[in-house]
Every structure is written in C-alpha cells, then in structure tokens.
Amino acid sequence: MENLHDKRKVYDKSQLIESEIKQNPIEQFRDWFLDANENPGISEANAMAISTLEDDGCPRTRMVLLKAYTYEGFIFYTNYNSRKGKAIEKNHKACLHFFWPNLERQIIIKGNLERIVENLSDGYFHSRPKGSQLGAVVSPQSQVIPNREFLEDKLKELEKEYENSEIPRPENWGGYIVKPYEIEFWQGRPNRLHDRIIYTLDDLDWKISRLAP
C-alpha cells in the first residue's frame, strides 16, 4: 500500500466572498471560466466531467468538452446512442464538474438535460474539422468492436465516399443543454477552510448560500 497521508497542498491563491460575487451564477461562471481560459497552465478550460446514472444505480463519470454556455444552460455534444446518451434519455438529470487546479477552483453543476434543436447541432457538426465529422460517423460509440482496424478501415471507406461532398450529420449525434438548478463554486483556502458558495434555483430566482467546507 502506498501511503499518501502526507501528500498535501496549501490553497492560498484567492477567496470567494459574498460581497464580490455575481447575483447570477452564469455570470459568476463566466468570470471564472475567463480566468481559467486565460491561464497559461490550463490547456482545456472547457474540459468538464459529466456524471449520469446507469441502469444498475451507479453513477458513471467521463470527460467531455463544453461547447457553449448561455443564461439558459451549458451545451455539449455526443452520440445519442452512447452509454452517456442512453443514460440521459432515461434520466434527464446529470452533474457537471469543472476543476482548475492552477486556480484552486472547482464548480459543480446539477441540471436537467434536453436535446438542443437540430439546426444548432447541424451548425456545430459542420463547423468541425472533416476528420472529426468522419469520426462521429465511424464510431458506434460505447459498442463492443472487434479491434482497432475495424475503425480505421471504416474511416478509409468514408474518406473516399465523402472526398468531394459534404458529410451529413448522423441522426444519432447532436447536442444537449444542461439547464442548471444548482451551481456550487469552490475556492481553495488555507487550513482547509475552503469557500463554498452555492446557488439554488427557486422558481425564477437564484438563492445564494454559503456551505461549510
């Protein structure tokens, strides 16, 4: 057994206090996201973990990329037939998690999920590099495949097929929007007395509370 008891870090880069935060959590998210996106030590500020509930009752977490956010919610794209997509269709709730170690910050977002309108999925799909478009067509995401060559051979076939034509967006690929009802902002502080500010949606208004670390 490797003993990690003495592996510790002092958190002292910033603070999160009520007099300085935004009253709307999306605006607070925007401020923190801009800080993360401009930080040279963070390569993908929009990388986020998303947890969904599986049929066996156990949550499953994986990393995806945030592609847009608005006052309505947070948008990402995926294969609707993947394990993630199937879990979302059965239980329209998920938890998002952003962690930016360089800033000693994390954000936890609980929300309800909906598919975005098809024209938005079309627009994003065709804005992607052609290789990424082909990858979405090639991969039967989350299904068992015989080997790596299965994907590579299929990719070569499609590269020839769509060499001089537009690649249609697969019907089973598109975007979801996570409409939040709870957003927690965590800022590391000394002596493990971290700042935790939570926004909870109450009808159309956001209630702001402080949680003990």
UniProtKB/TrEMBL annotation:
Which of this chain's residues are annotated to bind FMN? Answer: 62-67, 77-78, 83-84, 106, 141-142, 186, 196
Q: What is its EC number?
A: 1.4.3.5
UniProt GO MF annotations: pyridoxamine phosphate oxidase activity
Question: Per the database record, which ranges form the Pyridoxamine 5'-phosphate oxidase N-terminal domain?
Answer: 41-159
How cofactor binds (record note)? Answer: Binds 1 FMN per subunit.
Q: Which UniProt keywords are given for this protein, alphabetically ordered?
A: Flavoprotein, FMN, Oxidoreductase, Pyridoxine biosynthesis
Q: What class of enzyme is it?
A: oxidoreductase
Reaction(s) catalyzed by this protein? pyridoxamine 5'-phosphate + O2 + H2O = pyridoxal 5'-phosphate + H2O2 + NH4(+); pyridoxine 5'-phosphate + O2 = pyridoxal 5'-phosphate + H2O2
Q: Where is the Pyridoxine 5'-phosphate oxidase dimerisation C-terminal domain?
A: 173-213
What's the superkingdom here? Bacteria
Listed InterPro entries? Pyridox_Oxase, Pyridox_Oxase_CS, Pyridox_Oxase_N, Pyridoxamine_oxidase_dimer_C, Split_barrel_FMN-bd
* Family matches, as Gene3D superfamilies: Electron Transport, Fmn-binding Protein, Chain A
Q: Which PROSITE patterns match?
A: PYRIDOX_OXIDASE
Q: What pathway does the annotation place this protein in?
A: Cofactor metabolism; pyridoxal 5'-phosphate salvage; pyridoxal 5'-phosphate from pyridoxine 5'-phosphate: step 1/1; Cofactor metabolism; pyridoxal 5'-phosphate salvage; pyridoxal 5'-phosphate from pyridoxamine 5'-phosphate: step 1/1
Instruction: State the oligomer form and interacting partners.
Output: Homodimer.
The record's comment on protein family reads: Belongs to the pyridoxamine 5'-phosphate oxidase family.
The record's listing under PANTHER family reads: PYRIDOXINE-5'-PHOSPHATE OXIDASE, PYRIDOXINE-5-PHOSPHATE OXIDASE
Q: What does this protein do?
A: Catalyzes the oxidation of either pyridoxine 5'-phosphate (PNP) or pyridoxamine 5'-phosphate (PMP) into pyridoxal 5'-phosphate (PLP).
- Name used for this protein in its record: Pyridoxine/pyridoxamine 5'-phosphate oxidase
Give the originating organism.
Answer: Chryseobacterium oryctis
Q: What is the lineage of its organism?
A: Bacteria, Pseudomonadati, Bacteroidota, Flavobacteriia, Flavobacteriales
